[in-house]
């Protein structure tokens, strides 16, 4: 009897009596893409589709018709915005990724926040350690991808816009609008 009481107390201290945590999700509702030079970076077939009731994923292709080399002029930044209700009052958040070379972005942000989300649904680079240049020409395909929010910072429920902006030989953008539940 005493052993059972001790076991119950140990489980309670370890969180054994806590209800299961709810699964956080980020459902993409819209994707907008653009390129100032489609001959160098082209986006095709981008869409959001319903996977199941209340669950959405996005698909698309981008073709990189240039090789991105270490030290060239190709840079990226990420800006984030939040809205309580998703209707035109998106406000900038302090969580953003400053403009920097694409390789710094790949190592410092793509790998910890994005790579796990896309490694099973896309042909985007997956790597151990640091990204090794160059980023080769080719067509990268994303098929029914969803963001894995386990790798995201803690975000409140609401609507978000994530703008990934590229600069250099070509200016491009990928804008995701979605809802954090």
From TrEMBL:
Highest taxon listed in the record's lineage: Eukaryota
Signal peptide feature range: 1-22
Pfam families: DUF1091
UniProt KW keywords: Signal
Key word Signal present: yes
Name the record gives this protein: Uncharacterized protein
Gene of this entry: 101893549
């Amino acid at each position: 009897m005493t052993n059972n009481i001790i076991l119950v107390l140990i489980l309670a201290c370890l969180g054994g009596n806590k209800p299961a945590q709810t699964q956080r999700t980020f459902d993409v509702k819209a994707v907008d893409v653009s390129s100032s030079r489609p001959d160098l970076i082209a986006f095709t077939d981008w869409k959001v589709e319903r996977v199941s009731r209340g669950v959405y994923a996005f698909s698309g292709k981008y073709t990189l018709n240039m090789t991105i080399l270490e030290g060239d002029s190709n840079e990226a930044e990420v800006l984030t915005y939040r809205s309580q209700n998703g209707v035109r009052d998106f406000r900038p958040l302090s969580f953003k990724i400053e403009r920097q070379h694409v390789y710094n972005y790949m190592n410092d942000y793509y790998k910890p926040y994005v790579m796990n989300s896309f490694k099973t649904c896309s042909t985007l680079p997956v790597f151990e350690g640091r990204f090794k240049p160059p980023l080769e020409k080719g067509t990268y395909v994303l098929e029914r991808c969803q963001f894995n929010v386990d790798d995201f910072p803690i975000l409140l429920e609401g609507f978000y816009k994530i703008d990934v902006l590229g600069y250099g030989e070509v200016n491009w953008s990928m804008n995701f609008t979605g809802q954090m539940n």
